[in-house]
Write a structure and sequence with these properties.
mainly beta, four-stranded antiparallel β-sheet, two-stranded antiparallel sheet
Length: 78
């Protein structure tokens, strides 16, 4: 199930299910990658997000109705 709360990066790990508020309601996904020193390319764009030990960057596979969507979401855990 993909309804775990988004938590601090010290508690969240690769493979964890997360959820967060978005403009379309509650979004759900699974953490694919966490970068604490370096960058993650935002899929489908020329943007990157830089991760630091204090502010990690996270790549999340987004799910809808329990099925993975084609895009991935990159964010910083807060």
């Amino acid at each position: 199930m993909y309804d775990a709360a988004l938590v601090k990066a010290t508690k969240a790990g690769v493979g964890d299910s997360v959820s967060w508020s978005s403009s379309g309601g509650t979004a759900k996904g699974k953490i694919l990658r966490i970068v604490r020193r370096g960058k993650i390319n935002v899929p489908g764009s020329s943007f990157t997000i830089t991760g630091t030990p204090e502010d990690p960057a996270v790549l999340i596979r987004v799910y809808r109705d329990g099925k993975p969507r084609s895009e991935e979401h990159t964010s910083e855990l807060q």
